Amino acid sequence: MSTKMLVIVYCVGLFLLLMELIRRDRLNFKYAGPWIICLLLGIFFGVFDQFLYRMSAWLGFGLTSNFIFFAVLGGFVFLSLLMTLFLCQQNKRNDRIAQQLGILEHELRELKKQNKSSSS
Amino acid sequence: MSGHIGKTSRTLIVVPAFNEEGNIRRTINELKGLGRSFDILVVDDGSTDRTAELVKGEDMDLVSLPFNLGIGGAVQAGFQYAARYGYDVVVQFDGDGQHDGRFLAALLNPIAQGDADLVVGSRFLEHLGYQSSFLRQIGIRFFSFLISFLIGLKVTDPTSGFRAYNKKCFSLFAENYPIDFPEPESIMIVHRYGLRVKEVPVKMRGRQQGRSSIRYLKTLYYMVKVSFAMCLDLMKQRGRIS
Fold it and tell me: Which residues lie below 8 Å from residue B141, measured CB to CB, with a gap of 6+?
């Protein structure tokens, strides 16, 4: 199997896995979006690899492999930043829910107390 | 009055507490002993000891957070409670027994007179009571210098958690308050929103029981995080309160 085929098969395989995870509601589209874009780019450059060589030369990379390493690492850094962003957002929401839950629990406790004393 | 829904007074004292079983009863008794011209709310910040249990035994208003959020998260829950029930003033009074309730009136005066939106109780204005450890004093002086350098505001005790907030101020913080180590950063936020900060001299005591949450490497993290957050705050847009 040529390297080109290996890249295409790997990207298509991951893409199908992502689709299946979305279909099973294990992953939602919002979080799968950046991965889908990366995999589509992988498939595109796997099929039309001449663009990869041209782009690599145009950006001044001596070896195309260096460009690929740079692009993959850059992509992962960006993806992990996105995930951190999502994580922070979730953290904030969790904190807010915890605060509201505490206040509501207090209200419920007091209502129960009032109910008890009014019924007795 | 405790054990009620809604307010019986215009002022709410918020007591954040995390694993303070050794101190909370004394703190509550001290506040109760001051008279009943205010409501008291203990915010149990996900304690793993008997803090919540002891507060329930005191027939006191208690908000129990399901997990530990940090001091900022606990105090913010108090702000949200105050905003929900329409209080006019919030006082933050730590559950570790370090704050002296006799200085509450001094803390509330500038708010009552409309001289300030946030009043910070400072142990360094008149050097009353416990002055903190040498290392902590260095940290406090550093933050004091940083605030003065960044926004030109003189605050001698920026890490003090003995504070009073008027409605404008706590409503702002109910929406947006730093979760961990919030005190110095909150002064920057108040200034950014054009609110007024004033310090009054207060007396503080050493911690009676238990240990501070800021120790060892956390001290270093605290210094770096807060300094960084304060510098970043300068880059944020000047806010307006509607």
Answer: none
Q: Span B11-235: which CATH code? A: 3.90.550.10
- pLDDT at residue B8 is higher than 70: no
Report the residue of chain B nearest A107, measured CA to CA.
Answer: B5
The sheet that has B39-44: what strands, in order across it?
Answer: B61-64, B39-44, B11-17, B89-92, B163-166, B118-122, B197-201
Strands (E), chain A: none
Rounded Cα–Cα distance for residues B234 and B107 (Å):
28
Q: Is A117 left (phi over 0), alpha (psi -120 to 50) or beta?
A: alpha
pLDDT in tens, B69-115: 999 999 999 999 999 999 999 999 999 889 999 999 999 999 999 99
CB-nearest to A111 from B5, B43, B64 is B5
Cα–Cα distance between A54 and A66 in angstroms, integer?
A: 13
> Are B61 and A100 within 8 A, CB to CB?
no
**Cβ distance B192 to B236 under 8 Å?**
yes
Q: What is the value of ipTM here, to two decimals?
A: 0.80
* B63, B66, B73: residue with CB nearest A106: B63
Query: Closest Cα of chain B to A55: distance in Å?
Result: 37
d(CA B192, CA B171): 15
One-letter amino acid for residue B240 of the chain: R
pLDDT at residue B210 greater than cutoff 70: no
Dist. CA B65–CA B48, nearest whole Å: 11
Tens of pLDDT, residue by residue over B186-203, are 999 999 999 999 999 998
Shortest CA distance from B82: residue in chain A: A103
Contacts of B77 in chain A (CB under 8 A): 98-99, 102-103
Cβ distance of A95 and B81 shorter than 8 Å: no
Characterise B181 by phi-psi region: left (phi > 0), alpha (psi -120 to 50), beta (else).
left
Q: Which residues contact A78 (CB under 8 A, 6 or more apart)?
A: A34
Q: Between A98, A107, A114, which is nearest B66 by CB? A: A98
pTM given for the model: 0.83
As a whole number of angstroms, the distance between CA B181 and CA A93 comes to 19
Domain boundaries, chain B: 11-235
Q: Containing H/E element for A91?
A: helix A64-119
